[in-house]
Fold this sequence. Notes:
The first copy, chain A, has a single domain, classed as Macrophage Migration Inhibitory Factor, CATH 3.30.429.10. Chain A is of the alpha+beta class. In chain A, strand 1, helix 1 and strand 2 form a beta-alpha-beta unit. The first copy, chain A, has helices spanning 14-29, 57-60, and strands at residues 3-9, 39-45, 50-52, 55-56. Helix content of chain A is 30%, strand content 28%. Chain A contains 2 helices and 4 strands; from the N terminus they run βαβββα. Chain A starts with a strand and ends in a 7-residue tail after the last helix. Chains in contact: A-B, A-D, A-E, A-F, B-C, B-D, B-F, C-D, C-E, C-F, D-E, E-F. The interface between B and F is medium-sized, with 12 and 19 residues. Strand 2 of chain A pairs antiparallel with strand 3 of chain F, so a sheet runs across the interface.
Amino acid sequence: MPVVHVFVWKGMSGEAKRKVIAGITKTFTDLGIPEQAVEVIIQEIPKEDWGIAGLPASEKLRDVMPP
Amino acid sequence: MPVVHVFVWKGMSGEAKRKVIAGITKTFTDLGIPEQAVEVIIQEIPKEDWGIAGLPASEKLRDVMPP
Amino acid sequence: MPVVHVFVWKGMSGEAKRKVIAGITKTFTDLGIPEQAVEVIIQEIPKEDWGIAGLPASEKLRDVMPP
Amino acid sequence: MPVVHVFVWKGMSGEAKRKVIAGITKTFTDLGIPEQAVEVIIQEIPKEDWGIAGLPASEKLRDVMPP
Amino acid sequence: MPVVHVFVWKGMSGEAKRKVIAGITKTFTDLGIPEQAVEVIIQEIPKEDWGIAGLPASEKLRDVMPP
Amino acid sequence: MPVVHVFVWKGMSGEAKRKVIAGITKTFTDLGIPEQAVEVIIQEIPKEDWGIAGLPASEKLRDVMPP
């Protein structure tokens, strides 16, 4: 406890993923939860498979890229 | 709001995915929700990794294919 | 197949839920999937527990209500 | 993008939830993602319904409380 | 590792939940995974909020009850 | 009903997956649920994308492998 599932667009760098894991974990350790209790599961979703406003993000947000 | 997670077997065509995104989004806009508020995240699961009745779907439903 | 998880704010009416279930199911039957294969799981989240732009939706979007 | 699902034990305070939402959102804005793109969905699970090491957390971790 | 999310209809008894936690955990310890690494999160969904074949399970499967 | 989502590290063998599907399904049939009602969806997560104690499992648990 806690378990955190993160959904992002495919293409996030390894460095960005490390920061996501570290930052989310720190959010909970700041609340007094031991760090070994925090699990963060990142799942990358192709923009073609992520719909926003009725269209795939690969069309709707063609020029926006993951960090 | 809303966030919708869709799990389907791997192999769904791009055209079918577009219809899934459009159809689910329309379901919510018909209820008065603005389309830009609807996010649809599709995840494709290999049939080997989807169990039905105790067996992988790749065996249990060998001849059924995703649209 | 498919399994669809829907996350909405708490307070959606039973009538709206029925339309969500029917509309999402029809999206898949229109693709040739038999209706008995479609499962839709709706989860209502209190606005206090749904963060947008760093704040609970109960503050950020105080006046927006679920259908 | 991103969508973050957080699972914690039931009983987390409103103040702790606000910090979870703010901290996770900041993790992503630090990566250059606009804050309005970050959605955080917190779900509280009764300890009876959260198994660890084969037992409900209500027994296995009787004296540990959520923040 | 692993994390297991279980979705069932609302009304499952505490005894049945204990068996679900124990049985799923044993499935993984039989594979050599240490039991303390297995987390099982059970979420109960009202039958009104679980759609099957286009209808809420509360109508479609009126007489079926959770264990 | 039920729907079970299993998250494991990438690299689990096909034989182990079959045992996960069979074992989880049996857990529910032992409770009187018909086997055809049980769906198990396994998702494999690269160890780089699974954070434990603030670090990717690929670093924190470098020598632990999935079954």
